[in-house]
Give the backbone structure.
Amino acid sequence: MSWALLSLASPLLAALLALMIRHGADRIVLGATLISLIAAVLALASINGEQPVSLNLGGWEQPLAIRLELGHLSALLMILTGTLHLLVGLYNRVSDHGTSSRSDYWPLSALMHAVLLALWLSRDLFNWFVTLELLSLAAVAMVTLSGPKAYAAALHYLMLSLMASLFYLLGIALLYGQEGVLDINQLAQQLTDTPITRLSLLLMTLGLMMKAALWPLYLWLPDAHANAPTAVSALLSSLVVKGPVFILWMILWHLAPAPFAEQLGLVLALFGGVALLAGAWSAMTTPYLKTLVAYSTVAQLGYVLIALGLSLRWQALELATALWLFIIAHALAKVSAFLAAGEMQGTYGRKELTVVKGATLTMPVAMFAFAIAGGSLIGLPPSGGFLAKWILLQPMFTSPAHWPWAFTILAGTLASAAYVFRVVSLSFDQPDITPGSLTQNLPAQWLSLLPALLVWGLALLSHPLLLWLSRGAVV
């Protein structure tokens, strides 16, 4: 647990230092992010066996203590968070379209990093509420870094986030009033199936779905992601929306009574199926490049909803492994897609989708990054997206009654291919400018390519990764 605490403390301290020492804030934050990543790797290596390690903060005992828990899933998510923050931070520093070394981006990104780590480690309903609020405030503030053009989107995001917080907090209050504890393990041991239990879980589910931009409660996401700076868009899509999903999964798997879980699971899975098609349709019809990438997040989170819903419906824990593999693969692919799209948009000076026309000749590295990231979003083998989809499909082949879900996933795959190839096909058209006439930043483009290569490299790590995820999914 000491390595996990070091991983958490490093970005938190860096956020405070970056506020006080603006000159060189980028170096402070990047150095702390690297330390945090190394500590997260050592934390994963320190876990012996399948049992997680717990720590009660301040020496208090239950039920007063705020408990942190380090397991395989939390450690993997800490590594993912550190890796993506380091990659995006490096991109933001070297890109011609990034923020300056004195920008508010650096303390805010470090705060976001620390809050996410605290969220992965927490096992207390109210502590999760605190992390969600800090995460939302940091994310909203980072959206505004684009200037006045992003203020309306940021305000919309803030208002819906506050509404979601009220739903979640009301659910906590009802549950606490009934049971008198907030630690999720204690609640799981004593919670009974009552109308108050079901109402509180439903309220928390609504709040978390809105925070995570899950269909149909995603209205804040397209404008916020499209109008934010490129580095911020990448972090929002890859990490910020995954925090509420983690809490939702923990709450429903630990606390939901079996009959209620089956009913709610069916609803969530149906929402996921609609999200695959509705998000893809919006991505296929938007005229703007970053908005297309933003809507693809809505569509891709449909797989997460299907995996979560069916795991509850069928009480199939192996689907939880697919869920978290989807989240890891989507995070890596979406960072690459947003960085590549933002780099092309910034270099060409336009935000329309037609900006990629002829990009295979004018900006081949960035376009290649977008294409192979899109390949994982589609689910082409042997990418991480393919592995997750294959695991998700396995239980559906066991009974003809499950085949409609398999056809839904196939339809989502075809819809994903449609909006990805919409961009890729344009990139092979004759460019409007002469190749070589652009002033390009190749280090930034190569950094946008790296996460896409990592998501395709997940196949090489599939055995230990699936073993860790299966251990982490044990509730």
